[in-house]
Amino acid sequence: NLSNKVALITGSTSGIGLACAHTLAKAGANIVLNGFGDANEIERIRQNIENTYKVKSIYANYNLMKPTEIKQMIEHVNKTFGGVDILINNAGMQHVTPIEDMPEDMYEKIIALNLSSNFYTIKYCIPHMKKRNWGRIINIASVHGKVASVNKAPYVASKHGVIGLTKVVALENAQTGVTCNAICPGWVLTDLIKKQIEALSQKNNTTFEEGAKALLKEKQPSQQFVRPEQIGETALFLCSDSASEIRGEAICVDGGWVAI
Ligand code: NAD
Question: ipTM of this predicted complex?
Fold first, then answer.
């Protein structure tokens, strides 16, 4: 039961982050939403969370590519709720192209969002967690934090970095009630992946469904997409007391991808 806990989930206006927000709210946590999107749609999501789960929810509209905005976001949450107890670093982006064609500013952006933002949110959230001697930091890495694929240099570098960061934070807090772990999803059918399927089906002149099958066949032995809720449930488990000695781990939820 997470009532009286405050969960900040970055990039929670869609996909995996939104699913995590629902799962933690259902368990009683107050929810800080973050991410981009249509203001009315985000307000609808926020109200829906409050009404469905009888928790408090706010929307923190900050760009995580900018460290100063991350600092402001944590200050905003501290002022409203007193501090972040559960931090899910989920916001992320992808760009698929060979390294020699990868735009330099794309590399910088992906590293800033997928990796550096995790450093800053953790840095600013941890004092409160240490004071309470309880905290959960969950970084949504990827199978690409453990293995590589072609044409994803910045993404794979950023996700490998996230796993390294996860281990350091886990060790630094190993004698406290603050744990830090990563979750490594395989293919989950979100906007991020839909773009890749569309590109693949365009290239091969197939339907979206055929593109999706082709994507799964290439990497995911189960031939099924992971459901966003399954990532949320894994995060919820990491928040539980049963998981208090899981530290510095990177848990794959990937249909067998990394087992090969
Ligand atoms: P998504 O595109 O649906 O969600 C990304 C979220 O990040 C959105 O809410 C978006 O508004 C937010 N965001 C983007 N730029 C931002 C910024 N500058 N500041 C704040 N928020 C920003 O994608 P998703 O698939 O749900 O991805 C979530 C995480 O899961 C990412 O870190 C991604 O790398 C990881 N992941 C996804 C998959 C997959 O198959 N979908 C697999 C492995 C890992």
Answer: 0.99
